[in-house]
Design brief:
The chain is an alpha/beta fold and 329 residues long. The chain has nine helices and eleven strands. It is found in: Cytoplasm.
Amino acid sequence: MAPTKKPFWADQAFVTLATNDNYAKGAMVLGQSLRNHSTTRKLVALIGPHVAEDALHSVFDEVVMVDVMDSCDAANLALMKRPDLGVTITKLHCWTLLQYSKCVFMDADTLVLSNIDELFEREELSAAPDPGWPDCFNSGVFVFRPSKETHEELLKFCTEKGSFDGGDQGVLNSYFNTWATADISKHLPFIYNLSSIAIYSYLPAFKQYGHDAKVVHFLGKVKPWNYSYDAQRGEVKGHSASPDPCQMHPNYLLQWWQLYAASVLPLLQKAYGDGERHEDAREQPRFPPPPSLRLSSAERKQRWEAGQIDYLGDDSFTNIEQKLNSFLK
């Protein structure tokens, strides 16, 4: 007797966001990990206007370009030492996906370890506790229902009250402010959003429960794609900003790179060729921006002065710091 095929839910989707090409790599790894674990839901990627999208179509059912929004909250972002998080407000566009009845949002720096379609049995807003402040939920993984009204209310909330941390997590926790106390069924188990930060802050719990993890979240400034990978040796090579891969838990970091090398890298090479490689041929090629989106210095300056700043791309703190160091030398 043939095994029963799981039904495909065309009106439900996993959704992620990429505001630059590095996060697009992460999104492709996330999407491929969902497919490898036989999800029965559609995959949707929201992307900023400067993201090369050709390869994304190989993994996602739908690629939607959205405007990049920014909280412009330098003070609170400075408290977290993460000026790049302001554009995460763009995540609020996920409520505009009205063609879907229910969705699960997942940050592009997450990796799925097993099938998680059961998350669609939860209601809005279901999420796991944040390891830094457990009475807040972490907005890296959450269940929601697209709604024009909710989207408009969230934008109005941002305008009137802002975000207590300068990013989407502060906005969403303030808007869905009964999450901590109202309905325990909306508290996702931590295994659906296991952060590397929590692994080392409570190692005994990780040893006890870590084998049940379903989603790993690579929280922090340094991401998996900031490292490099020696495919011949099957080893992850350290990053200059964080030379010890163990800060990210080596097993999960290796799984990310193995999936990238086996499934995502061939798609990138097919879409963009090998012309934009790093000096080390064993490392990953960059997403080359489409020719129409390559900005001249004058155009970048004009965008900066107009407040159109690519915090996660060319205008990231890291790139600015490198430019200043070069100038000072």
